[in-house]
Write a structure and sequence with these properties.
Structural class: alpha+beta
Strand content: 15-25%
Order of helices and strands: HHEEEEHHEH
Radius of gyration: 13 Å
Number of strands: 5
Number of helices: 5
Strand order of the largest sheet: 4-3-2-1-5
Largest sheet: 5 strands, mixed
Distance between the termini: 38 Å
Oligomer: single chain
Helix content: 40-55%
């Protein structure tokens, strides 16, 4: 789906996180609700805001290193390439907090 040049550029800038972000975007696992983005991960759904993700990689590694996690990268790519699954609902109504 993505050109080899684009893939190389993303992987060069973000490394393995970029490669995983490309896979997530290509598999169309990025959803935009009325209030936020959600990325469907391998084991859970992760809330992504502009500079925040609820995944452990971001909370324990990426945040400390001032870099983006694969979910944040996937949101950027999916938004840029028109691969967002738009859901006309509030996330809290679809998946209420416990």
């Amino acid at each position: 789906m993505f050109s080899d040049t684009f893939k190389r550029q993303v992987e060069l800038e973000y490394g393995n996180r970029g490669k995983k972000g490309l896979e997530i975007a290509e598999e169309r696992r990025v959803k935009r609700y009325k209030d936020l983005y959600v990325v469907v991960g391998e084991t859970d759904e992760y809330i992504v805001e502009e500079t925040l993700c609820t995944c452990k990689d971001f909370l324990f590694t990426a945040l400390r290193n001032l870099t983006k996690c694969s979910h944040m990268i996937a949101v950027e790519i999916a938004e840029q390439e028109g691969l967002i699954d738009v859901i006309n609902a509030w996330y809290q109504d679809v998946r209420p907090l416990p």
